[in-house]
Design brief:
This protein is mainly α. The protein is built from seven helices and no strands.
């Protein structure tokens, strides 16, 4: 018979809490660095049309597969806006952007904030439809 593997104690396990705290403090510093860009993003978040125009012009997605083309932004109307916002959420999803630029933590933080703004716009559009 096989004996069970030895149990690891809490002191032997890597500290997730310490790593999480380090990530949080680093992100706070990045938020400070991105303060002006985040303020511009907040100003652009007043309506979906302005938000989409701002993010695709100022911060184009870095992933290889982009779901929203520049030509679509020029022809936006009330009927297509919800679909375009949903596709923009795919373009700026932090996990997809992390894969496209794995070492750029500032870009990741910016994508998190863009995703929050797009989600808020999508919730408003979904509630009014």
């Amino acid at each position: 018979t096989r004996s069970p593997p030895p149990r690891t104690t809490d002191s032997q396990r890597p500290s997730r809490r310490r790593a999480h705290t380090t990530d949080q403090s680093m992100r706070r510093k990045l938020h400070q660095t991105l303060r002006s860009e985040l303020a511009d993003l907040e100003r652009a978040s007043k309506d979906a049309f302005t938000l989409l125009d701002y993010i695709y012009k100022k911060h184009p997605p870095r992933s290889t597969k982009v779901h929203v083309q520049a030509s679509e932004l020029k022809t936006l109307n009330a009927d297509t806006i919800k679909k375009v916002v949903r596709n923009a959420l795919l373009d700026y999803h932090p996990d997809r952007q992390r894969a496209a630029a794995p070492d750029d933590e500032m870009w990741f933080v910016l994508c998190v904030e863009i995703t929050k703004a797009l989600t808020a716009r999508h919730d408003v559009l979904r509630a009014t439809a």
